[in-house]
């Protein structure tokens, strides 16, 4: 089993995994806590990763036929009340706008009582209701279907206990919303998106995931089926990294989304929704980070190759800078992973050793240090961030300029693959399928530990279950909760036959993943 | 003088300019009014234009050294109270979040009194205060300066009377925020951005503008100087299309943004802010639209060349489609205006004549109609949207496939230029500089007309003024207001000497633009 990470180099002392995470977010200059309770400030390097996620995923969303739109931030309260399960699921975490003006009263600026809204507005926690309302106007006939839209937006779900990227009151995401003529079309869409997310997470984020269906108790409020991709973090916990929901006709009924078929008959549409968020950035950090900070997969690194010139306030500095500029230019003309290489010459006024370590902590995939000897000799000396050290010693290698330019695309592709392979081995090696009773499960995971205290790395258990529902499922949930465990998903990839249910002793109908989770 | 547009073809009857605008927004499928009062739904074609604006402007913002970040949507009320002019300027239009939970009380879902926030949160109308707070933490020494950030975000300013794109309670924008060591650096930034906006508006939007400084009474709340670009719409009114503010040290003092210079002395930073918004889309519509709907400059058209296959449910349809697909592919491999050509084969199940008119109304720059004869003969028959008609007659032209592929990049560049030239001639031809007294001004503009009633096209007046301030300026503003006129800006480009002030009779110190405005 993979040990929990030590945190010595990033945090200055050994600590828990949450300490390490917080230190990496800070030292990699990704984000910081904001003075607005529960929200975050995403700094340039963190936002650059989000922009890379947006660009690469947006391309996939378009290629599968979806159009980007923008819908209002504020949703009238009455819209939520139409779908009972949906509002129940979100009511406890909604930010409510009640006034549209401030006024100085008794020397203090406060909401103007005369500008109180007749109906409060909800800051969107998700947009099924307001988009469904538009769908009810846009859809007339079978020819308008499927209707496939997506939006990139901010959403707000009030959180009491927040952690940067993983759980914040405001976050950024994309939300896809589609309407179809029948269940078959809508289910196919739900699974197509699930597969899109899986491929995206594995190819772009180098983050292996298991795609599967969430159990009934973990469904999106109002959904018939919820599917997810689940990734294993370096502390063994699961991170739900994306979800895709088949909503049946419940939202269509609540909002009167109907179409006329060729026979002139009116029917309710079947709808879907799906999303991924800035939470993915937390997943990338906890999948690829190491003792020295972040390691970014080249596909999402805002800068893939960073060149640090070693300047000494001497005449030969000019030659080093010139050599560095030419190298950046030559790199930018080459392609890696299907796009022009993103190279940077870091000319900031700072000690070059500090710059190097900043880029190590930020996880730039390749860091080049250029000195006068490199410039004079036509050499390039560089470090691969994915294999920075041999033991404790930092490793670098040298090549001629021509050889480096030639090798750069393959090197970046190799780093992308190496990060994936490392994470894939961790995932595959840490799912136990030999645990078949609840007692064994309890014994394996041991007493629950406070999540801030670390604890031994455990991974997940994959076990047969009888897919209980209702009260029987509630009981399962309670027993797991006592161990701080949750049901993650029933993987799409299932065996032909199945053992006995770990919870009920009945014959199992499928296998399900169990683990601790974010 | 240019006549006001007739609206016959888009609206079905003659109407006013606002009627025409509304019809174009609807018929071009750009946006619609949302059920959330004052907000809009931006539909795929409208959002596609915004994405083009984002991509092309973002490139310019990066190239001038700015980094993208993301700051919280909600700003604690107390942050606004720190800068008196600023809060006064925005307090009347702020959306206020007061609760973080809903509860079912007496069978009705409402804000939970137990979840009332101690301090209300303001939905950002602009982010100087929360970004300034971050700057106060991020800036320590002269080496941290200049600090140059930008964000793409949604903002909310409560509006009672809204119009799609031009004035909505929620809109999308970019806001740049920078901090500098001295006034000189900050002023240079303010003007650099003003020039960036001018170049962007003219090159990308094909919308000629006049860059200049706003008079004191039109400054951003809290700013020392506000500069704008002003564009002339086809009804003669001015649209403020972008602003750039030099904020002096007032925000830095309110938020304690200080740096240590080399001598160890602490000084306040000089800050700037600047932005453009989805309002630009309204400007594009009112600059380039015509009787048939929208005309989009190729640089921002989501699709530059749209191919409508004329299908007849006959065997030769397959040949037409195949020919069309090959044509799209060949176009996409070519570059126009520095980017791959954005071509589309419209295979939607709809009558081809309807499709053609939809693309005319949406303003696709080149519309190709492909029939069996084109496919058989290797021909391409197309319409240029910028010169759709000769008199009332729709014009099309035919070329061989090879000639069309060869000509396409130049054709798109020519359309971009033609739209600019047409708008530039209108701007240049409709600024009167021979009006030198207030009586002449009043006579020229005539009695104020209700903006929904059209009225004759008037353009602007450019006149010398003595740059009055305080009460004297208030008086000028009042006199203009009675004529529904406003001071737009004092153009950057000023003559050596200046006449007598149109308002005060004193010697003029600069020339200023006067007009009706959005
Ligand atoms: Zn169907
Ligand atoms: Zn300076």
From TrEMBL, chains A, B:
Report the enzyme's class at the first EC level.
ligase
Domain Aminoacyl-transfer RNA synthetases class-II family profile: where?
37-297
Q: What is known of its domains?
A: Consists of three domains: the N-terminal catalytic domain, the anticodon-binding domain and the C-terminal extension.
Under the heading PANTHER family, the entry gives:
BIFUNCTIONAL GLUTAMATE_PROLINE--TRNA LIGASE (PTHR43382:SF2), PROLYL-TRNA SYNTHETASE (PTHR43382)
Q: Which GO terms describe its molecular function?
A: ligase activity
UniProt KW keywords:
Aminoacyl-tRNA synthetase, ATP-binding, Cytoplasm, Ligase, Nucleotide-binding, Protein biosynthesis
What this protein is called in its record is Proline--tRNA ligase
Q: Which reaction does it catalyse?
A: tRNA(Pro) + L-proline + ATP = L-prolyl-tRNA(Pro) + AMP + diphosphate
Q: Where in the cell is it found?
A: Cytoplasm
The record's section on SUPFAM superfamilies has: C-terminal domain of ProRS, Class II aaRS ABD-related, Class II aaRS and biotin synthetases
Similarity comment: Belongs to the class-II aminoacyl-tRNA synthetase family. ProS type 3 subfamily.
Give the matching InterPro entries: aa-tRNA-synt_IIb (IPR002314), aa-tRNA-synth_II (IPR006195), aa-tRNA-synth_II/BPL/LPL (IPR045864), Anticodon-bd (IPR004154), Anticodon-bd_dom_sf (IPR036621), Pro-tRNA-ligase_IIa_arc-type (IPR004499), Pro-tRNA_ligase_II_C (IPR016061), Pro-tRNA_synth_II (IPR017449)
> Transmembrane segments in this chain: where?
none
Tell me, in one coarse class, where this protein mainly resides. cytoplasm
Known Pfam families for this protein? HGTP_anticodon, tRNA-synt_2b
Subunit-structure text = Homodimer.
EC number annotated for this UniProt entry: 6.1.1.15
* Source organism superkingdom: Bacteria
Q: CDD domains in the record, alphabetically? A: ProRS_core_arch_euk (cd00778)
Give the protein's function: Catalyzes the attachment of proline to tRNA(Pro) in a two-step reaction: proline is first activated by ATP to form Pro-AMP and then transferred to the acceptor end of tRNA(Pro).
